[in-house]
Write a structure and sequence with these properties.
Blueprint lengths: L8 E6 L9 H15 L4 E7 L7 E4 L2 E7 L2 E3 L2 E3 L3 H9 L2 E8 L4 H4 L8 E5 L9 H19 L3 E4 L2 H5 L4 H6 L2 E3 L21 E5 L8 H9 L7 E5 L11 H10 L3 E5 L4 H9 L2 E4 L8 H8 L4 E4 L6 H6 L2 E4 L4 H12 L3 H15 L1 H22 L1
Parallel strand pairs: 1-2, 1-7, 2-4, 7-8, 8-9, 9-10, 11-12, 11-14, 12-13, 14-15, 15-16
Antiparallel strand pairs: 3-4, 5-6
Helix pairs in contact: 1-14, 7-12, 10-13
Keywords: Glycosyltransferase, Transferase
GO molecular function: glycosyltransferase activity
Pfam families: Glyco_trans_1_4, Glyco_trans_4_4
Length: 382
């Protein structure tokens, strides 16, 4: 955007958790912020300080990051009383604010007019393992999301498939809605450093949490008798909000020595992970897109995922994989064995479609055009 205006920032991104925290939602916000900053935009991110060791303000890869102190947490939700006011303060110094939902504070942030266009990215209907506390938390977030979406000038969803099956579809349907896939990085060119044998290697990459359905993947893999087969499980389990299921995965690995727990992977390690596997598995029981599966597809690795609105979209849009029912280890095993047999030409054509659909540059172009449009409209009304 042009710097010839009175605003300090072209864009303010508001998200509960931000880098170095890792989740799909966080990665969308990070890639968007850093990508536009790399194009010359002045970008601020406002988040909570999920780790007390992090500074309240810093510059990360060309982005000004502001963090609000956290006083407690409820499930996955950080309690940061100063977060809404900090978002509003930085938003007023910006041309456009981009809120990333689900976010409990959305209604508070938009309670009074911001005098700046609000573009809201609605990632997913919040899902938490059901308890009395989490049911109350989900209900509160649902109400806040309804209010925030109604007050937004524009709404972005990862796909119309995700939106149409959302519990908030009645609001999304009448919103100024754009379907823009999560921007996915090109991870091609890695080295197969995690590959151990000539047998099939199946990979999962994501947070080691209940909603990813890893128990079903472990059960499916156990029924593949090949002693040369490997299951590579990569992802964070130390700092995930709401708790991890790593103990169950470790127990499974003790029973089956073919399972490898890789932990959190970053940078080139992720490229090497994709270069090491023959099929990707995303057995989620709650999912809105699955950046890791789309990146795997872009590397020529077919994905087997579950039949969930939004989560199934990357496979349906490209044909680069198979869709199975959630919580179905037998179906998951059959689909994995199917895609493991795909030839190089099929994989290459699928990768081409995935690169065209999910490549980061195209997604950034569409976000940038949306932000420019609403920024220009706001200026014209001033």
């Amino acid at each position: 955007m042009s710097s010839k205006n009175s605003h300090e920032y072209d864009l303010c991104v508001a998200v509960n958790y931000y880098s170095p925290y890792v989740s799909g939602l966080t990665e969308v916000a990070r890639v968007l912020a850093e990508g536009l900053a790399g194009r010359g935009w002045r970008v601020a991110v406002v988040a909570v300080r999920h780790d007390a060791a992090l500074p309240l303000r810093e510059s990360r890869n060309g982005v000004d990051v502001y963090r609000s102190p956290v006083v407690a947490s409820v499930g996955r939700g950080p309690v940061s009383p100063g977060f809404p006011s900090l978002v509003r303060r930085i938003a007023r110094r910006s041309r456009v604010v981009n809120l990333h939902l689900p976010m409990l504070e959305g209604a508070l942030i938009t309670a009074l007019p911001l005098r700046v266009p609000v573009v809201t990215t609605y990632h997913i209907d919040l899902w938490l393992p059901p308890t009395l506390v989490t049911r109350a938390a989900m209900a509160a977030v649902r109400v806040s999301s309804r209010v925030t979406l109604r007050r937004s000038d524009a709404v972005v969803v990862n796909s119309d498939d995700q939106a149409q099956y959302s519990e908030l579809w009645s609001i999304l349907r009448s919103s100024q809605r754009s379907a823009i896939p999560a921007p996915c990085l090109d991870r091609r060119g890695g080295e197969a450093t995690y590959r151990e044998t000539a047998g099939p290697h199946i990979g999962f990459l994501g947070r080691i949490v209940p909603d990813k359905g890893l128990d079903y993947l472990v059960a499916a893999f156990a029924e593949i008798p090949d002693p040369e087969a490997r299951l590579l499980v990569g992802g964070d389990y130390l700092t995930v909000a709401g708790g991890s299921v790593i103990d169950r995965i470790r127990t499974a690995a003790e029973r089956d020595p073919r399972i490898r727990i890789l932990g959190l992977l970053r940078g080139r390690q992720i490229n090497d992970f994709y270069a090491s596997i023959d099929a990707f598995a995303l057995p989620s029981i709650a999912e809105s897109f699955g950046i890791a599966q789309a990146e795997a597809m872009m590397c020529g690795i077919p994905s087997v995922t579950t039949d969930l609105p939004g989560g199934r979209y990357p496979v349906l849009a490209t044909g680069m994989g198979r869709v199975v029912q959630p919580r179905d280890p037998a179906g998951l095993r059959v689909a994995l064995l199917d895609v493991l047999g795909w030839d190089a030409d099929t994989r290459r054509e699928g990768a081409k479609r995935a690169l065209e659909e999910f490549g980061v540059d195209g997604c950034l172009d569409r976000y940038a055009a949306l932000f420019r449009l609403h920024g220009a409209r706001a200026n014209a009304l001033m």
